[in-house]
Amino acid sequence: MMKRTVAIACLLTASLSTGFAQTWKPVADKILSPWAEQVTPQNAHREYPRPQLVRQNNWQNLNGLWKYKVSPKDQKTAPTSWDGDILVPFAIESALSGVGKRVSKDDAIWYHNQITIDKKVNKGKVLLHFGAVDWQCDVYLNGQHVGSHEGGFDAFSFDISKAIKKSGKQDLTIRVWDPTSEGPQPRGKQIINPHGIWYTPVSGIWQTVWLESVPQTYIASTKQTPDVDQKSLAIQAAIEGAQATDEILIEAFDGGQKVAEVKGSQADLHQLKLNDLKLWSPSRPHLYDLQIKVLRKGKVIDEAKSYFAMRKISKKKDAQGIERMYLNDEFIFHYGPLDQGWWPDGLHTPPSDEALKFDIVKTKEMGFNMIRKHIKVEPARWYRHCDSLGIMVWQDMPSGDLGGNVWDMQPGKISSAKHDKDRSPESEAIYRKEWKSIMAQLHNYPSIVIWVPFNEAWGQFKTKEIVDWTIQNDPSRLVNGASGGNFNAPGHILDIHNYPDAAMPSPELFGDKYILALGEFGGLGLPVENHTWQQKDNWGYQSFKNADELKKRYSGLVDHLTRLIPLGLSAAVYTQTTDVEIETNGLMTYDRKVIKIPVTELNGIHQKLYSKELVK
Q1: Which of 63, 157, 179, 166 shows the shortest CA–CA distance to 437?
Q2: Distance CA 437, CA 416 (A)
Q3: Can you tell me whether residue 255 is helix, strand or coil?
Q4: 331: pLDDT strictly greater than 90
Q5: b or e along 521-550 (b: 16 or more beta carbons within 10 Å of the residue's beta carbon)?
Q6: Element counts in the chain: helices (H) and strands (E)
Q7: Residue 46: Cβ within 10 Å count
Q8: Measured between alpha carbons, how far is residue 200 from residues 71, 196, 487 in Å?
Q9: Distance from chain centroid for Cα 435
Q10: C-alpha–C-alpha distance, residues 420 and 610, integer Å
């Protein structure tokens, strides 16, 4: 049982009112993080959700209490009665939703809200945005179907302008279906029956829902790619409703001072030339500001703000002829935790933006310079925090459609085993569509330096084709094609997993072709009483009775890494940032209330990994 129950009485804000007072409280059956105690329907994730394309003054947050109902999957018409209230944007299974209810592949989740659109938003085109909804979603406004979407980890939006009533409240209804582990879609660590390394399902809305007013011609997105060698930023904007003669003006600022600009056709790829480059790195995460304007006959008809960084990730051989990873043409050993991004109270959704940032801040303070975002995509603000704080990110594709192939952890081994899964055309199409969308939406975040399309053979298919396609899709980053096994066509990186001890691929066999990485290791477990998901049957890859034993073993693992780096190891990922459900192998407890090894001591232990003397 949860150690504390938090009850918070609240009234809905005017824009989210359903006409009468409501009460809400987290479901009282699990531990809570400190930030959960501060959550109310009025303050649930109120921050602007899209940091790479900002129009600050014409948006409206729709998070808060909504009505919900779980119906049979085959029900296609909106319910006339509701099961109760749910706090958006927390998944129905989570404690912070106020519901804590499991759903199956035979169920649909319905959401309903009567919204009053702010005057500043109810003009021009009105877009309805979703940060993420897991998995299949249909949206209705005032009884009109305004759009459908499939994908649990990518943002999407619909133009709802024509469905808005001229006055009064607007009826917004959403239907969601999520088969979790009983469907072929990307779902990450979710499973119908949680156990071991597999966790509680996350269904329905789990990121911010919001409205935005835009003009008839507007900037829908941008693609920004730094080229350090050419001292330029390649930038192209996708403009909805553009006319052939429209122009785009792009201006770059450093500390409020304009340092570059370019103007030209809205349809072209533009090169923003910069002098006196300030490069982004973990030790100096310098960011430039961007102002993007659409011009028609010299008049500004839309504008948005963004930001970028100048950084280069590449590979080349060291003095021994072994491939190494370079940031801005300097070798830097990548070391960071496997970060699952799960919360005891919100599951995929942190209780607040402060909580979202906390894990990154502590990771940096611990002396790590990288995070492997494992089998999950975070809200956009998480990547903004990584950009600002100076943390490199290895971004995994969430896995799905598991089973039907063999996991082989031995690189160089030849066998008759079936390593690539035969996925249905539907399953393949779902993977490709969502991976492409994820890469496009995350492209502008400079902290992301590596894409990871497959992990431990989970749903791995057509490996060479997918890895090559990932590389072609974004040649500005490196690709770790098959983290931890099934190494046919691994891309730029050969990445083994080994628990608990540190290890590496053979430099003699593979070092002349691939960057050598230890994609997972460690997993040292320490359950902390009153801070575990359940009271017993918790586990780690190797468990300890106290923090002193844990620290001694961990320090030994890091010492071993310092002996592997000169041999050719370029990166290592320690499992893991926090405990997750019954896994107690985190550096922090699941509720983030206990850090098992003091931050300053961890930082001191890690500094030896970054010595320039280790690699010539």
Answers
A1: 157
A2: 34
A3: coil
A4: yes
A5: bbbbbbbbeebbbeeeebebbebbeebeeb
A6: 7, 38
A7: 14
A8: 20, 11, 30
A9: 12
A10: 37
- Mean pLDDT score of the chain: 94
Identify the three-state secondary structure at position 373: strand
Taking residue 53's Cβ as centre, other Cβ atoms within 10 Å add up to 18
Please report the pLDDT score of residue 20 as a whole number. 36
* Calpha distance 501→567 (Å, rounded): 16
Structure tokens at 24: 């809400």
Q: Is 169 exposed, middle or buried (0-12, 13-18, 19+ CB in 10 A)?
A: middle
Host H or E run for residue 604 = helix 599-606
Distance CA 225, CA 232 (A): 9
pLDDT by residue (tens digit) across 426-469? 999 999 999 999 999 999 999 999 999 999 999 999 999 999 99
Tell me the pLDDT band of 486, cut-offs 50, 70 and 90: confident
- On whether the CB atoms of residues 4 and 29 are closer than 8 A, the answer is no
Look-up of token digits 């249905």: 424
Q: What's the whole-number mean pLDDT along residues 519-524?
A: 97
Helix (H, G, I), strand (E, B) or coil at 248: strand
The encoded tokens of residue 99 equal: 């519901």
Tokens at 512, concatenated = 């002349």
Q: Which residue has the tokens 């190891």?
A: 569
The tens digit of pLDDT for each residue in 287-301 reads 999 999 999 999 999
Residue 75, amino acid: Q
Which pLDDT band holds residue 22 (cuts at 50, 70, 90)? Answer: low
- Collapse the DSSP code of 538 into the 3-class scheme (helix H, G, I; strand E, B; otherwise coil) and give the result: coil
Q: What is the pLDDT of residue 251?
A: 97
Q: What is the mean pLDDT of residues 508-524?
A: 96
Mean pLDDT for 497-518 is 96
DSSP notation for 215-228 = -SSEEEEEEEEEET
Q: Coil, strand, or helix at residue 363?
A: helix
Q: Which residues pair with 159 in a beta bridge?
A: 127
Q: What angle do CA 31, 89, 130 make, to 5 degrees?
A: 150
Provide the pLDDT confidence category of residue 408 given band limits of 50, 70 and 90. Answer: confident
CA dist 96 → 314, 343, 351, 357, 544 (Å): 42, 10, 8, 18, 32
Beta strands 454-455 and 482-483 are parallel
> 410: which 2 tokens?
């031995």
**Which run of H or of E encompasses 295?**
strand 288-296
